Amino acid sequence: MLSQQPYDVLIVGAGISGIGCACHLTSQHPTKRWAVLEGRDGLGGTWDLFKYPGIRSDSDLHTFSYSFKPWTSTIAIAGADEIMAYLNETVDEFDVRSKIHFRHRVLRADWDSATALWTLRVSTPSGEQRVQCRWMFSATGYYDYEEGFRPTFSGEESFSGDVIHPQHWPEEFDYTGKRIAVIGSGATAVTLLPALADDAAHITQIQRTPSYIVTRPRVDRVARFLSSILSDRLVHTLARWKNTRQQRYFYQLCQRFPNVARRLLENGVRKSLPKGFRVAEHFHPPYDPWDQRLCAVPDGDYFRAIHNGKASIVTGQIAQFEETGVRMTSGELISADIIVLATGLNVKLFDHIELRVDGSSVSLPSCYVYRGLMLSDVPNFAFAIGYTNSSWTLKVDLVCEYFCQLLHTLDASGDTVCTPVLPAEELAARPLFDFDAGYVRRAAHQLPKQGLEFPWTMTTDYVVDQREFRRRTVLDRHLRLQRQSQPPVDQAA
Questions:
Q1: Residues 177, 345: contact at Cβ < 8 Å?
Q2: Spatial distance between the Cα atoms of 339 and 78, rounded to a whole number of angstroms
Q3: Is the four-CA dihedral 170, 174, 176, 177 of positive or negative sign?
Q4: Lower Cβ count inside 10 Å, N or C end of the chain?
């Protein structure tokens, strides 16, 4: 049951970001009153929602896990079940579960300067409730958890088989002995292809344009060796340091020397496929490496499915669906009993919660991000959005550390309201994400902006972020602080 007394912090979302924030608050602010509001009936976010075969992380778990909770498995690229086990263990270890309110979806959040409080309208199983807090922390990510991106295709109604979007994979769906066409070229498609290949009659991946695909070891051999001689925490720290640097150096190589990176990636593909395979046709994207996210495949399972003949690739334009499959503009018919639309996701920042400040709606496209975790002119509001070119949780940890430091600093000064204010000279704007993925392009007009220089940037470099977050002062001239008298809070409530 939600308290009628104002909370110090309300966290929206019980996925990997919300759990991370809750654990940081538990260890850094043990006397503060906080709760987690989760719209679904289970924790885990993405890892609980998606049920399609083979779902896994495409980042290594030494960087995708939390800094404060070592990943002790020898498996570096882990499946959803292993990630969910880790999250559940974390929740219980930090005694977070009792503070998560499931099936509590935030509809609207109103800030009132007179009381220095957010009032959240929340849909609950017992009806709509209102709950107040001093700080609101959005941990909803930026995907629409209700609907994925689902383009329409000519002739869909004529197809005689099942058409499935991975975001809504039916439970216990039997595809044994079926011919499957997977439409898409991103991480979901390259995950599905090897996962379905063993039981399906055949799988054909249909892609309009290729993606860059790189093989990653399922087991981190360095971490496995170190685990025999060092403690779990030290192994975790060293593996995390090693992997973040590897990620960073390869990303920088792609940005500075794209042609070199392209050759390296394509040579890796050639080594994994039969001699004479048309690599240039199917694995040569029309953009530079890391203009879009690279797809990582553990131990080359994706290439192995193609090599042994269980799967194939068709690159080109779809003309229409027909009764027995997918017709390409080339005239080729891809025979299928099942069509899987691995066509991507939709962006839904802050879960489309309506934000209002003193009665006026917050226009997200008019806002700038401050240090990648707050919005200009929006008081006492923070959020966590992870990296697109590295492990999501690396950024979440930094954001939560800074958020806790900010709360400590405000407690010490007696200030209760903190609002980022954009300086007049910060006029230039860039898109929130310097990233060319389709889901980002489709949503760019709905998103906040970033400026050109710190702190008005959404940085994508973990090493740089570490310096900016940890070496700079918690407060700067861009934060307007105010002191608002509050009635005392009943700590026992």
A1: no
A2: 26
A3: negative
A4: N
pLDDT in tens, 428-456: 788 877 766 666 667 677 789 998 888 99
Alpha carbons within 13 A on the beta-carbon side of 399: 30
Residues 6+ apart with CB under 8 A from 20: 66, 139, 384, 393, 396, 397, 400
SS3 475: coil
What's the CA gap between 466 and 446, in Å, rounded? 28
Q: Can you tell me which residue has the tokens 């050639």?
A: 270
Q: How many CA atoms lie within 13 A of 5 on its CB side?
A: 13
H or E element, residue 324: none
Report the 10 Å Cβ neighbour count for 434: 15
C-alpha closest to that of 43 among 9, 71, 19, 64: 19
Q: What is the pLDDT of residue 485?
A: 58
Cβ burial of 429 (10 Å; 0-12, 13-18, 19+) is middle
Strands 117-124 and 105-112: antiparallel
d(CA 330, CA 319): 8
Residue carrying the six token digits 């105010």: 482
In one-letter notation, the amino acid at residue 331 is: G
CA distance 290 to 288: 6
Instruction: List pLDDT tens digits, range 104-125.
Output: 999 999 999 999 999 999 999 9
* CA–CA dist 14, 6 (Å, integer): 20
* Cα–Cα dist 436/367, whole Å: 21
